Amino acid sequence: MRIEPVLVAAEADALATSLGDEAPWTRVLNQGDKVWDLDRAGLESLGPERRAALVEAVHGQAREGFQFLYDSVRVSEEAAKRRERGLPVDRLLDALNSPAWLDVFRTLTGEPGIRMVDGQATRFLPGHFLTSHDDNVAGKNRVAAYILSLTPRWRIEWGGLLTFHDDAGDVDLALSPRFNAIHLLRVPQVHSVSSVAPFAGVPRVSVTGWLRR
Prior knowledge:
It comes from Novosphingobium nitrogenifigens DSM 19370. One of its GO terms (biological process) is regulation of translational termination. InterPro entries: TPA1/OFD1_N, uS12_prolyl_hydroxylase. GO terms for molecular function: peptidyl-proline dioxygenase activity. There is one protein chain. This protein has one domain: Jelly Rolls (Sandwich), CATH 2.60.120. By secondary structure, the chain is an alpha+beta fold. The mean pLDDT is 96. Strands 1, 2, 3, 4, 5, 6, 7, 8, 9, 10, 11, 12 and 13 form a 13-stranded antiparallel sheet that branches. The protein is globular and about 50 Å long.
């Protein structure tokens, strides 16, 4: 389901602004089950040739397997650590974990057992993507995923679409990022984020995570 608007307009604008180039983004990618986080200094230290080789390796793994490549601002699951850092995205996660929001999520999903919301900010630049998966990870107790889109303007031609796959291998539904809208999708459900085009005019920015029992 899609719900919009989610935040008061001024708050959505402020949150989006806080997730500009100065935010503490790290480049995240996986190698099988292992996840790598590279901060700006780590990326620069690789040099052009090693960065190109890294992208080539990521593309090689994406041809047949589960692979992702995007930027992230991690958010702690611990309220005390979120309060200590105090970024706008930390305050958003505090709000989503409030009794009022938890009750909203329980009502929308029909799952009274939801006890917490985790999350991170994500930024998809040209060439970034997330191949098909269903979010069902043992021990995480995920009920549903959510994506709060924070890109003020997006064209379908720029890619970065949230796509849902059917059993025949076709796209059953594709959703474009819509500013200040939240998408909820049940777990498990096969979906992906299509590659952002090289001519995309802006980054695809959102806050995403899971509602958990």
